[in-house]
Write a structure and sequence with these properties.
Elements: H1 2-11, E1 25-34, E2 37-47, E3 52-56, H2 63-70, E4 78-83, E5 86-87, H3 97-102, E6 103-106, H4 110-113, H5 120-132, H6 136-149, H7 154-157, H8 167-179, E7 185-189, H9 197-214, E8 217-221, H10 225-231, E9 234-239, E10 242-248, H11 249-252, H12 259-266
Parallel strand pairs: 3-8, 3-9, 6-7, 7-8
Antiparallel strand pairs: 1-2, 1-4, 4-5, 9-10
This protein binds adenosine-5'-diphosphate and magnesium ion.
Adenosine-5'-diphosphate (ADP) binds at residues 34, 37, 39, 57, 59-65.
Length: 269
């Protein structure tokens, strides 16, 4: 029941035919600094509803900083964020609860992202209560649903703490915590980088399944080309704080490539 409601909510913009091509989120000419160090230089990106934009580029190119700007943790010196065509307040502290609900983050290190003292029941229950106003039995049902969505049996896991989970289970829990807000967009910053390959593949399959079921948009930050080939619809390549190449999976993986993209693709094992 909650799941179908959610799908309706995230599909809402598709009900208006003129909005079919409207990006869910757009970065319009964003520049940002750490102190006097320029880190983002005129970044423009568009994320489409229900699609995956992979953001790739070498370490230090500004991918995580782009995520920080989207989530309102770093204020851009210039440029705008647009959510469904409407300007989005840059500072997360000034965003409404509804605006905060729509964009959720998952990070590389689940260990540092999870409070070791909380039980799974609360790790998932708190955001579900905060964002959706659920309580009592409805909240409990929702938490159980979230656990089932990441293939964990509620009876076995509700009372556990993060230390009682494997690395892959912890990352799935972080994904479920993001889902508790019923977001439209998830920013996944190197979410498989700390996991061994088979576990990482499980996580990618889970993300794909969730996207299909919930019409989620992903900003998928990764340095792994296999991941990009597996699940990206569109790809943006960053270098030294700029987007130096951009395309769909079809166009970007076909030569000729701009020199930097060619180098990245060639580095693939
Ligand atoms: P990526 O995620 O692509 O590896 P980042 O966005 O983390 O890159 O970093 C972009 C640049 O900003 C790098 O040069 C990095 O050293 C610098 N940087 C990142 N975080 C900070 C910070 N908190 N203070 C100062 N400089 C930072
Ligand atoms: Mg990073």
């Amino acid at each position: 029941y909650t799941r179908s409601l959610w799908a309706v909510r995230n599909f809402h913009s598709l009900e208006k035919p003129e909005n079919i091509e409207q990006p869910l989120l757009a970065l319009d000419n964003i520049s940002a600094y750490y102190g006097s160090l320029p880190v983002l230089k005129n970044i423009s990106l568009q994320l489409k509803p229900g699609r995956t934009l992979a953001l790739i580029g070498e370490s230090g190119s500004g991918k995580s900083t782009t995520a920080r700007v989207i989530s309102g943790l770093l204020l851009p010196a210039k440029g705008r964020l647009l959510y469904q065509g409407t300007p989005l307040t840059a500072d997360f502290r000034m965003r409404t609860r509804e605006q905060l609900r729509q964009i959720q983050m998952v990070y590389q290190m689940p260990d540092t992202a999870l409070n070791p003292k909380q039980r799974i029941r609360d790790i998932l229950g708190r955001p579900a209560a905060f964002y959706l106003g659920l309580g009592g039995k409805a909240l409990h049902e929702r938490v159980c649903d979230l656990l089932r969505m990441i293939d964990l049996e509620p009876g076995d896991y509700l009372q556990r703490k993060p230390a009682q989970l494997s690395g892959g289970q912890k990352q799935r829990l972080c994904i479920a915590r993001a889902l508790a807000a019923e977001p439209a967009l998830m920013i996944c910053d190197e979410v498989t980088s700390a996991l061994d390959q088979l576990v990482a593949e499980d996580i990618l399959r889970l993300l794909e399944k969730l996207q299909r079921e919930l019409n989620l948009s992903y900003l998928l930050i990764t340095h792994d080309m296999a991941t990009v080939r597996a699940i990206a619809d569109e790809i943006a390549v960053m270098q030294h704080g700029k987007v130096v190449d951009q395309g769909t999976r079809e166009t970007l993986f076909k030569p000729p490539h701009p020199p930097y993209t060619a180098k990245l693709l060639a580095a693939e094992p």
